[in-house]
Design goal:
This protein is an alpha+beta fold and about 300 residues long. The protein contains five helices and 19 strands.
């Protein structure tokens, strides 16, 4: 997926060097940019190096060549090796802003079935950990939340962010630290769905690029939030269903969210102003419904 950069904005390119999956310090790094046809815009320029990471803030307002278009090239040369990054200059970059709140509002029950929350009882712990062997071999809750219930009247129920989960011992590590150590407290954990939301967003973004003249779209990101939510649940139920039978409740839910997504996509109000004059002309208006997603 190409990087999307808003027109006349600054975007920071970043590259981190890894050798055998370990960060490796960079000695020299440069960046240059070209149009899709290969015309050079930015000549080779030194990047800022900090250990294993090289960065460069590209100001797209600095050249008229950074006009709204697709498939610009950023050539990042790190210690003699060239890495190519493709980017597009767009009117409004795609932004996946869906949170757990939107997912809960749409279908809390499905999230709970998929591991949204689960009760536990600590066997031991500390001010930053809770151990429950019943979670051994279970789902990874890293990035989720843990709600620790009071062991007695001197405590209060508190929520913490799960920073790590060891599925070999059933140990949850959380932050910030609790005032008192966890002993035999009961608790509730919520799984993170960040990866699934990101995947749904990637699919929506890819589908949007199938629209003609995507780079010119005046696209309010709130318009695509529903699409991401529907795609999230479509993928969730596609994974859970065991057949395509009408008797399979998960398959029924899969079809429901698949159709909701297609309906939302087909009816998405996309507006084009190709010449940037603030008016949608007759020729531009005709583009609005020129592309439909085919599955």
């Amino acid at each position: 997926m190409n990087i999307e950069i808003k027109e006349d904005a600054t975007y920071t390119f970043s590259f981190t060097e890894y050798v055998n999956d370990l960060e490796s310090n960079i000695s020299a790094a440069t960046i240059s940019t070209k149009t899709a046809s290969g015309t050079e815009i930015l000549a080779s320029t030194a990047m800022t190096i900090s250990g294993a990471t090289a960065t460069y803030a590209l100001d797209t307002s600095a050249s008229a060549d950074y006009s709204i278009a697709r498939n610009f090239q950023a050539l990042i040369v790190v210690d003699g090796v060239t890495h190519v990054r493709l980017f597009d200059i767009v009117r409004y970059p795609f932004n996946n802003s869906v949170t757990i709140v939107e997912l809960q509002q749409e279908n809390r029950g499905a999230l709970e079935i998929a591991g949204f929350k689960k009760e536990g009882e600590a066997e031991s712990g500390s001010t930053t950990t809770a151990v429950d062997a019943s979670f051994i071999g279970g789902d990874d809750y890293t990035g989720g939340e843990i709600e620790v219930y009071p062991a007695d009247n001197s405590e209060i129920t508190q929520k913490f962010s799960i920073t790590a989960f060891d599925d070999t011992t059933g140990t949850f590590t959380f932050s910030p630290a609790r005032d008192t150590a966890v002993s035999t407290n009961r608790f509730q954990v919520r799984k993170s769905f960040d990866n699934e939301v990101a995947r749904a967003g990637d699919i929506v973004q890819s589908d949007l690029w199938k629209r003609d003249q995507r780079a010119y779209l005046i696209l309010d990101n709130t318009q695509v939030n529903n699409m991401i939510v529907y795609k999230f649940f479509e993928l969730l139920f596609a994974k859970r269903r065991t057949s395509t039978s009408e008797d399979d409740r998960d398959n029924i839910q899969y079809i429901y969210y698949r159709d909701l997504y297609m309906s939302e996509y087909s009816g998405l109000p996309l507006v084009y102003d190709l010449d940037n004059d603030g008016t949608i002309d007759d020729g531009e208006e005709s583009l609005k419904d020129s592309v439909r997603l085919i599955r």
